[in-house]
Amino acid sequence: MNTSARMEQLEVLVIELGVLRQQHRDLDDAIHALQEKGPSSDVLTIRRLKKQKLHLKDRIAALEDRITPDIIA
């Protein structure tokens, strides 16, 4: 893969990472809003949102690993 194609692929990954981070923040905000409603809030919905948030966290970590070059000391 030439340098130009590698840079373009890296830019796409950085943009995707930004989108995933925003989705993660949005889920966090939604979870907090539901929890503030009190104990009568939808526990199953909160659980589902937390699971989605964890999945996003894993995807973010995987993308960060792809973007950050391995440094051998």
Total beta-strand segments: 0
Oligomer class: single chain
Task: Provide the residue-averaged pLDDT.
Answer: 91
Q: Hey, roughly how much beta strand do the residues contain? A: under 5%
Q: Helix coverage percent of residues?
A: over 70%
- Rough outline: elongated
Order of SSEs, N→C?
HH
**Stretches with pLDDT under 50, minimum 5 residues:** none
- Please give the radius of gyration in angstroms: 17 Å
Describe this structure in words.
The protein has 73 residues and is mostly helical. It has one domain. The chain has helices spanning 3-36, 43-67. α1 (3-36) packs antiparallel against α2. This is DUF465 domain-containing protein. Residues 17-66 form a coiled coil. It holds the Pfam family DUF465.
Topology overview:
Blueprint: H1 3-36, H2 43-67
Helix pairs in contact: 1-2
Features of the shown structure:
0% strand, mainly alpha, elongated, 2 helices, single chain, 81% helix, 73 residues
Summed up, what is this model?
This protein has about 70 residues and is mostly helical. Helix content is about 80%, strand content about 0%.
